[in-house]
Please model this.
Amino acid sequence: MNAFEYVSSPIRVTFGSGTVKRIPDELSRLSQSAPLFLSSAQHEQTAQLIQDMLPGKVAGVFTEAVMHTPVRVTEKALLYVKEVKADCIISIGGGSTIGLGKAISIRTGLQHICIPTTYAGSEQTPVLGETQDGKKTTRSDPKILPNTVIYDVDLTLTLPPSLSATSGMNAIAHAVEALYAQNSNPVINLLALEDSHTWRSRCLYGAWLCAVCLGNVGMALHHKLCHTLGGSFNLPHAETHTIVLPHVLAYNAPAIPEVMTKLSEAIPDSNGDAIKGLNSLLTKLQVKRGLRDFGMKEEDIDTAVEIALGNPYWNPRPVERAPLREMVRRCWAGEEARADL
Model:
């Protein structure tokens, strides 16, 4: 076996049905008594239901979390944190809300409890992506990790089918890139391939495993491109991951034959071809396949390529302008992925 390094996450995880009822106990364990609840406008009602478990013990509620964690929203939330004298943060929602919680926590040192309601995975990573002046930048720091994650399957039961599909594909993207990460290791590979077989209780469990993959090894071209597209053109996060994943896998396929074999064995209907399997899966899920469906313009393709080439992530295959542009064009047009780049 090849030498490798693996660092275990210090996050405390509670998983099950009805687990949000344990929030009072978790606050007591952390010696906190005045939480600030964060959510997006869509999850305001869910946040209110959880607040009702803490009568008279909530410092405040901030419901302005939005995609891609704009710095202007974080700065507004920070002023509110000081105003209400919160001593910890509870994020309820998907990647947008949890990202805001991480942005506040790393700036203030406040302890952070996450309650995910999608399969985004941000709750398990030491990575923070923020958007300012039309560009999304990321940084990694162990201090960004939340203290506690509470996975409650009941909170995912109302996810619409379309969001379940794209959020699930977002999770799968984390596992796929983990398999060929520069610092990949056998422990994470086991989690990545285990997830490929899981799909509401097992789906959330699979998303957790994918998130652990994302949080423990480096990512590559797929995540670089999705950060570029989302942050620069305000494209929806999960849907962008869904569209881009098969195309990046097709681009990298010549450089990762062993990973392609493993994925073809894990993804249904692959018949020895993981790209075929992913194309088939997206067809069954009936998701939109083109970035133009979400507002990206054809003239944005070259801009996206330029941004993606700047400060590139490590990738198993060198990133070259011409094939990268063709790949982005296919993502924009909504074509099926093909291994001919």
Notes: The chain has two domains: 12-158, 163-333.
